Amino acid sequence: MAKLILNLIHRPEMVPEYSQKVTGHGKQEDLGDQKLLNESLDIFITQQRIAHECGLKTTIQMTYSSLFNDEAVEIAKHDHEKYGDEIALTLLGLPCEEFRKKYKTKEFCIWMFSKEDKHNIVDDVFEKFYEKFGFYPESTGSYYMDAELINYIKEKYPSVKCAVATCFEEGPKAYHTCNNSWYTLMDGGPWAPWIPSKQNTHAPAANKQEDSGIVAIPHLSRDLLACYDGNGSNFGTHPQNVLRGMIYDTKTWEFPYFYNLVDQYRYQEKFNNGYCYNMVFVGPGWMNKMGRWEQPYELLEKAYKDGCNYYGELKKQGQLVDMTMAEFADHYRSIKTYEEPECALWRDILYGSNKQLFWYLDPYMRACINMDQGGALVDLRPYVSKLDYEMGVGSKHIQDVSYPYLIQEKYRAGYFTHYAGEGTIRSGKICHNGEEVDLCLCRTHAHFNNDNGNRTLTLDPVEIEFSDLTIKLVSIISFKQGSSEIEVTRKIVETSDENAQITIKEYMVATYGTTEYPEDMGSIVLHNDEQTMNYEYKCREIIKEGSKQISSDVTPIDTKVVMTCENDDCVGIVREGYAFSPMFTLEYDVTVNMKEDVKTWLKLEKLN
Questions:
Q1: 83 Cβ neighbours under 8 A, 6+ residues apart
Q2: Which H or E run contains 597?
Q3: Which of 173, 235, 285, 425 has the fewest CB atoms within 10 Å, measured from its CB?
Q4: How far apart are the C-alpha atoms of 99 and 63, rounded to whole Å?
Q5: H-state helical runs in 107-255
Q6: Distance CA 285, CA 36 (A)
Q7: Which pTM does this prediction carry?
Q8: DSSP annotation of 257
Q9: What is the pLDDT of residues 209-236, one digit of tens each?
């Protein structure tokens, strides 16, 4: 097994939001409270000590507030010299007396400020860092950094080569589980390191011209199944996340789930040419002496020790290499090409089910295949459009900077829907003598293969039983590197009647958006070869035998969705929805027998 690469990141956040609220409970707000500052620094020192005792080096991301604390600065210098820790700079941890007096705001999210304020704050923080250390940092980060901010930092401070740039699936699900108060909506991004494009942070660069000049890493390594189905903040490689999710033995204070999560990331090297990665990003607020998430300090400290010790043991066994962020950025560029995808074949390690998801990410799309629904495509983000989403006050995206979806089963229903209407999904229906079975109802598992740049899933056969016929069908789903295409092949491998014919309906139900709520579909245009239909919510459709191409222009997100079919006798259908079901459908119907396959392609293009 390849060595797991670890980024372990600490930040001396002198006024952490969690500690400040607990320590200052019942008191008038005082960001300069010495008790709070002392405790925060003590926790940072404890975290550094634990990491070093486990033989791990860290990246110390200095916060703005910590730059005014001489002791924090000296600790960073000492640990850099003694342990090889990187001294970096984060744009988290802005709140402090100095910041409040200068900017006269309670805002603390760099990505939500106006462009002018962002630039002023960046200059302020970076110059303060230079004043304290005599050099500019090579790494920075925040919960989210839009492309405009990254481009500004790279141009003004070219030493920066790595940044924490987004959270995986930190959107409506996290918002709802924070009592509708966590206004950081940034779904649709990568779960693993990537090179962000100059146009959009979430969308990886396709070439040197699009390269923003940095390597981005996600804020925490998440459970790619549990955090997709639920709140990602409970399922990550931050030990206190696991405590927040109550995923531990309350009697023994052991949490094997954390180790299983790390091990599953190690397993992903099988699908990524021998490369696997983990990230831990820890501020002091999580280890407050007053406790956190209804857990005592002793448990918080033990969880962090146990987590670091697991990484440390892997390092001793030669199965892990710890890198600073800057070191990792150089390593990543040495082993990756722009168009090489990131893949993850992920299984349930929490709930005891047999559920399995496959995630695929490249400069043209992010896609998720659900084997629990017969290999249906359940999440699709069209990175090919490289949407220019500047964020913050004064822009069109003040809170919501999620990358829009075409398909998203959690927000727009998927297969299992209400009594009326349809949900977004890409699947197939198998029909015979008036009976119909959707492959979404056929649970299966996938086997991965990387063949000449094509990442291919071959699904276990599923048995489909009609009143007078039983068949076994295999689905093969292939992602062709550098093409923005998904190829789907259906093969009948067994049948109870060699002469029977079945009709396979390959369909995609799609829409666009970033939340659960519908968007205006009025500008969408549907095409079936040369025939065109403007979306008017009238349930109309265009049906054509021998159709060469069916497509939809999704104008609001600058995306064209195209389906084609290899079979000559296919019937192409495009269909608009209605107000209660504001979707559009692209479908190919093909009638085949035992000796024939059905092969279709889904391709994404930038509209303009």
A1: 52, 57, 58
A2: strand 597-606
A3: 173
A4: 11
A5: 115-133, 147-156, 172-177, 226-229, 239-244
A6: 10
A7: 0.95
A8: H
A9: 999 999 999 999 999 999 999 887 889 9
